[in-house]
Each structure stands twice: as C-alpha cells, then as structure tokens.
Known about the structure:
Blueprint (H helix, E strand, L loop, with lengths): L2 H33 L2 E2 L7 E2 L3 H6 L6 H31 L6 H9 L6 H19 L9 H29 L3 H9 L4 H12 L1 H16 L3 H7 L8 H11 L6 H33 L1
Antiparallel strand pairs: 1-2
Amino acid sequence: xxxxxxxxxxxxxxxxxxxxxxxxxxxxxxxxxxxxxxxxxxxxxxxxxxxxxxxxxxxxxxxxxxxxxxxxxxxxxxxxxxxxxxxxxxxxxxxxxxxxxxxxxxxxxxxxxxxxxxxxxxxxxxxxxxxxxxxxxxxxxxxxxxxxxxxxxxxxxxxxxxxxxxxxxxxxxxxxxxxxxxxxxxxxxxxxxxxxxxxxxxxxxxxxxxxxxxxxxxxxxxxxxxxxxxxxxxxxxxxxxxxxxxxxxxxxxxxxxxxxxxxxxxxxxxxxxxxxxxxxxxxxxx
Length: 286
C-alpha cells in the first residue's frame, strides 16, 4: 500500500478514536469550564453566576484553597528534588558492574507496582504501629507536619524506583567511546559525571521531571489513604473533592469545586509546559 492509500484511509481509522476522545474528554472539559461559572447541584439545574465561584475561593467563604495550593507546591518541590536526585544516584550506581545489580533494580522498582490506595493503607498501618509504640497514638494524630513528611516518604518510596529505570536507560544509552575518550584524557569520575553523564542524560531528566511534577501535583489516592480528609493535610486534589462533595451547607460548593479544578488544571499545565520547555532547551544546548 502506497503513501496515498494510507492518507486516503487515515480519517476512517482515526474517526472512532476521535469520537471517543471528544465524548470522553473534550465535551466534559468544555462543560466543566462552563459549570465553574455556575451555581448548580446537577448539570441540568446550572445557573450562571459569573465570577462568583472564583471570588468565593479566595474570600471568607472558602479559605482553604490558597493554603492547600501552597502546601501542594511545597510538597511537589521537595518531592521532585528528592525523587529525581535519589533515582539518578540509584541508577548511576546500579549501572556499574557490581554483583546483584538486577536484583536491586527489581527490589527498588517493585513499590511502583502497588496501587496508590493500597500503598497508602500499607504505610498507614506501618506508621500507626510505629507511632503507637513510641508516642502512644496513631499516626493521624501526630500533627500536620508529621503527616506532610510522612506523605513525602511514601511518594519517594513509590516513585523513585520507576524514575530509576528511566535514568538507567538514559545512562546505558551513553556511547562507550565517549566515556573511554574522557578517561584517556584524564577526566576524574566527578568530571565525567558532571560534564558527560548528566548532560547526555538530559532527555531522561526531562521525562522524569515531567512525570514526577504531574504525579505529585495531582496526588489524591495516597493522600486520602494515609491521612484522610483534613484541612491541615489535604493537597489540592483532596481539597477539590472535599469542596465538591462534603460542603453540603454551601449552595455554591459544587461551582467552587469546579472553579478550583479549572484553576488547578491551568496551573499544572502551565508549570509542566515551562518545565518541558526549560529542560528541552538544555537538551538542545548539549
């Protein structure tokens, strides 16, 4: 079949997927933006209220969004740094010719195979047992600060192994002759790491940064399983859910929840776009 035949039948093969994507994503997305400007209980009784929902988010009617957004940003920054630095170091050492490398790779990757809810409950039991033994109460009553760092530990434990595999693939893709030439020229291991390995692994860094930023910003499952609903420990995804479904006394709750979701989508899309652009420029420079 020649190129013209492919082009002729291309719309026929794309159409089913395009219809499904439109029905499952495009139309609900547009409706979601519209509903963020409405007061509603169901889609059929939506009434236009303009910017009221957005104003309520940042006023006394709902004072949680800014706090949870700042908490989520802090959580994401710390998590991205720890996960990527840790994953790169693991990948760097596990690409050396040492015994048991494949076993260690498997062990570090395994936490990523556990679902978010299951993972959260497993760690909740571990931390509850630890806190009861040493502090006399369960982990949930240890305070917001402990909950925040507990969530950091859980996410690093889960995601670090996955990012490690991506970094391993990037390191193994570095040409051997480049490394050998650097050693012949007298480059130290630190110079090889900073001047050759890291620059040549920038495509992997781009992927890992994107995945870790998007996963941590949108985190819900582990936050719910480990800490439950609390204004002191909720991240943004939890706060949106809590606003939409649990604020039954607020007539604007559904609209405010939808408005938060729209703002959250714009922020995550903007941050990931800036990150991708910045890291890809580094790839081009190298």
